[in-house]
Amino acid sequence: MEIRSTTDQDLDVFVDTVFAAFGRFPETPNEGGGGVWWSALEMDRNLLAVAPGGRPVGTAGAYSFELTLPGEVLVPAAGVTAVGVLPSHRRQGVLSAMMRHQLTELRTRGEFLSVLLASEALIYRRFGYGPATYTQRLTVPRRRAAFARPRAQGVGDGTGSGVGPATGSGAGSVELLRRAECGEILEEVYDRYRRAQPGALSRPHRWWARGAGQPPISTAPRYVAVHRDADGVPDGYASYSLGEAETLTVDETIATDDAVFTALARFVLDHDLVAEVVFKHLPTEHPLRWQLQDFRAGQVTNSTDWLWVRLLDVPRALTARGWFTDGELVLDVDDPFLGEHGRYLLTVQDGKADCVPTDREPDLSLDVSDLGSIYLGGTAPTTLVRAGHIQAHHPDAAARADTLFRADRPPHCLHWF
């Protein structure tokens, strides 16, 4: 079997192979060749596994993203995508060979982080990836959508009267547009949001220009509630559609602060002829349920992992992110898939980290996939110690790691790729 890089001439073969791997057929692009997810593929970053005789049997791709780390640090990250093996060639080592080839290639490019969305949770941990951000769906019946009166002084509009106008500092407004009318606004607002949100990924212009992705990146018909600040500058949006059973589904809500989110939530929750509103992607600790008069009105479903993280260079990755507590830890990191093992002294002072090899006794022993899970601050090291995945060698080691790895805000990723 040969694993080779692709070129632009391989696009059709690549797409046909990955769809066949999942038992599906490609949809038809629009006249400009866009409107489909693969129109944003970077063909110089993709791989084909070719069986003897020349038949393609497997695919693996990667996008060029920026990932926001704790401390509003932006770093390059490879977004692994389109990974598939034909049913006729599974359990023959094709996937492992492609993933090993890809990780080696990413390192050759000088990249130190790789991320993906896992189709199956059992697959990617063995390749060194760990779940690092989480998301949930929240469903709110409109008849129970009244907001509680804020109890903190200076919070909200003080009316406590159900669904009402935007709250927060300064005046704002919400304008209703169609998706086709506001592509540039969506792109600009999302880019401002993702630069401050740990765990968020960039959405390159080519994605928006080609409609390559899920709504609201795609050009599928959607209404968009655009929030503007007192000066008329867009600072948030909610993309939504109204489906069967009078259910309004919000694809995503992007807001630069909590007051903007509240205004947009109130807007969709006040929609006429709607029985319930579904927010598809909210962080697991989002305050919306607490804002409702009836806490039980918000029903959480589909609470799941989203972005998985893989460290390709431990010292570079740990020194890249921002830190918020001084301290030090000795981490004993095992990378069985690549056959590597390293012990590192992580020292943090004044928000900056130094990470060097050491022969000191470890505080924590962990798999590289577990390091990926705690890297963005979305998974507490003590959780993985209690689960039996991380070994703490001192009574206070896990607690010290919790304090050290915490983020300035919970990581969250909305981007689908």
From TrEMBL:
List of residues binding acetyl-CoA: 83-85, 91-96, 119-120
Start and end residues of each N-acetyltransferase domain: 1-153
Alphabetical list of Gene3D superfamilies matching this protein: 3.40.630.30, SCP2 sterol-binding domain
CDD domains the record matches: NAT_SF
Active site location: 124 (proton donor), 417 (proton acceptor)
Quaternary structure and partners: Homohexamer; trimer of dimers.
Record-linked NCBIfam families: PRK01346.1-4
PANTHER family for this protein: N-ACETYLTRANSFERASE EIS (PTHR37817:SF1)
HAMAP family for the chain: Eis
Listed name of the protein: GNAT family N-acetyltransferase
Organism expressing this protein natively: Streptacidiphilus alkalitolerans
Taxonomic lineage of the native organism: Bacteria, Bacillati, Actinomycetota, Actinomycetes, Kitasatosporales
